[in-house]
Sequence to fold (293 residues):
Amino acid sequence: MADLDGNKEASKYHLDTPATSEAFMMKGSNALDWGMKNRMSNIFNPETGRTVMLAVDHGYFMGPTTGLERIDVTIVPLLKYADTLMCTRGILRSTVPPTFTKGIVMRASGGPSILSELSNENIAVSMEDAIRMNVSAMAVQVYVGGKFETQSIHNLTRLVDMGNRYGIPVLGVTAVGRDMARDAKYMRLASRICAELGASYIKTYYVEKDFETVTASCPVPIVIAGGKKLPELDALTMAHNAIQQGASGVDMGRNIFQSDAPAAMIQAVRAVVHQDMKPKDALDLYETLKNEG
Ligand code: R5P
Fold:
């Protein structure tokens, strides 16, 4: 217990210094509770307001896809370069060292495999277990225009309600079905619906034309998925264009872990995201790091 007598007189009231009331760094996030903001700060680097999320959750419907056959061998060494890891609870418990103290974005929806109707997902983790694993956000797939559109949106809104109760942000992941056009009109629609229904930030795909209208019309931060493996320069160019057109980062998987040199690639992506490095310079960085082994 603190002493009651003989204490030094308090005097440093800094009367000339008004109390600060800083705006939170992330778009649309000012009204969030402290816990939500703190968790968002585990995902987005407070210095740049951007993130490199390393996405390795593909196994939840694809099984051991190329590059993720042995997450312990291929992914764990990359963790030091990521701002955040996106994964399932199964991989988190079985494979990710608990000494990893950056943000975890947990895949929180699932159900169907690549062998069946992908939009038929349900919530796949309880709030208690997400809290137990100290996650920074929960990710839920939303299939706007898909067969089970309403069900997937209901998954989002239920997770938002539960997340709001405990201060855990929800990442709305816009899924594009096989027959849907990947254009700005669709991305605007899907992203905006996720934001309107309470997602704290959105993952969508980059589109060549009018992507800045997707970021402009979404009131919360957007990160882009990497998508299928591209040549390194193309992937770095896509990340660069997305950032310059208003994205707050990438949630990139295959273009990192399927690269010939994943450690070099994630560092090049970091330079694009956090330092606004130009794609050709980032490719040079990639080649240099790759040659260094
Ligand atoms: C899909 O499996 C997941 O939502 C991935 O996290 C997402 O697609 C990002 O991974 P990639 O960059 O490989 O598309």
User: Anything to note?
Assistant: Strands lie at 51-55, 84-87, 103-107, 109-110, 122-123, 137-142, 170-174, 201-205, 222-225, 249-252.
